[in-house]
Amino acid sequence: MSWQSVIGLEIHAQLCTASKLFSGASTAYGAEPNTQASLVDVAMPGTLPVPNRAALDKAIAFGLAVNATIARHSVFARKNYFYSDLPKGYQISQYELPIVSAGALAVRLQNGRSIDVEIQRAHLEEDAGKSLHDAFHAATGLDFNRAGVPLLEIVSAPVLHSAQDAVAYLRTVHTLVRWLGICDGNMAEGSFRCDANVSVRRTGTQKLGTRTEIKNVNSFRFVEKAIEYEIERQIRALENGETLVQETRLYDAAAHRTLPMRSKEDADDYRYFPDPDLPPLAVTDADIAAVRAALPELPDARRKRYIEGLGLPDSDATQLCADKATADYFEAMLGALPGQAKTCANWVLGELAAALNAQNLAMESTRISAPMLAGLVARIADGTISGKTAKDVFAAMWAGEGDADAIVAARGLQQISDTGAITAAVDAVIAQFPMQLADYRTGNEKLLQFFVGQAMKRLRGQANPQQLNALLRDKLRSD
Known about the structure:
Blueprint (H helix, E strand, L loop, with lengths): L2 E12 L38 H13 L3 E2 L2 E2 L2 E4 L9 E4 L6 E9 L5 E13 L3 E5 L4 E5 L6 E7 L6 H18 L11 E11 L9 E6 L2 H20 L7 E6 L4 E7 L9 E2 L6 E2 L2 H9 L5 H12 L3 H7 L3 H13 L4 H18 L11 H12 L5 H12 L5 H8 L7 H14 L1 H8 L5 H12 L6 H13 L2
Parallel strand pairs: 12-13
Antiparallel strand pairs: 1-10, 1-11, 2-6, 3-16, 4-5, 4-15, 6-7, 7-10, 8-9, 11-12, 13-14
Helix pairs in contact: 1-4, 2-3, 5-6, 6-8, 7-8, 7-9, 9-10, 12-14, 12-15, 14-15
């Protein structure tokens, strides 16, 4: 009998706030250990937490973007467990009454299908500290800078059935939180990470199997590999007659395997109860309306507008809308070149994307602004330079030599469109190669490109290619 995997993701998105969830301490990344841990963060006696309003607004923004229910009344609870890097001995989270519940997110899969993934809840909680293990000295240090950093935990229903679909959903959430500006999505710094709950069951059955949780995976590739391994491990164990244990596991990327970390707790084990130091959060209709008014056009809506309104292919629209900075760049470029959506998309997804990727840069760090790139494309459109020359000009722009007009003028790259000059070059080439001319006229039309190359060489590569091809065809066919 075959098996079906069942996957749900718990995504932890660190919210882009200047201060922590319950204190005024900074959330900046990379500070010296324990320099951004306030008395509130380390739970010193007599301190009281105060909720961060900006974090609440960002949670509401996410809820609105996934058409979820926004709770007018939500409660912070104490989640009790012991870790050495959890200074309070409990984590302030939300349990029975989260700020966001019952949403859904449309996810486009690699095979062209689209699925709606149910989001059961998204709740606010504080992050723990960080344990730093020193194997050489057999010691562990504790850094509480991250303690109290605001997280939005986004919990999907167990409705995903392959590692590939799970990663597609994870990428969609990653795009959305960055698009909304609520999370920077930096997986290397741990500001976007996920736990994957994985189980398997016989195909056709409804009862879920024993699940394991793969903890804190922070790259798309490792999430996919970890889930694939865990599915195979569970199937192999069940077919061998073994009993699976509900547990938390870690993914070892070097060995490509998951390893047991601890037995998996259920909600009862955490002994949730409302935090007595924090009153319930009250959200009004006016609060929600203010957040809704500030929402940008969402990625799926913009993608559809690019396809239906601008006539872009689905593939182009999807790539442009994978990142808000890229989509905004495209729109700024199109504003300077109305009616040339496809040409703008080609340059953004082609030369510009290649230059950024070559130096591992984000769109925000591009060396060529949208108006500058529009200026380059405009010189192709008006015949000043050819498409081939434009790539050389782009490279010079990327190197910081100025805008397109300045580079074209300085290097004398203006395209030759003078019919007399092109005709003279064509006549000279035809006279120089009589044998090739005879071969062409007896049916070897591939020699056309030979003549084009020779004429371009005479004209230093600056001839208008359309004019040159037309003149050559006429001359080569005439007696």
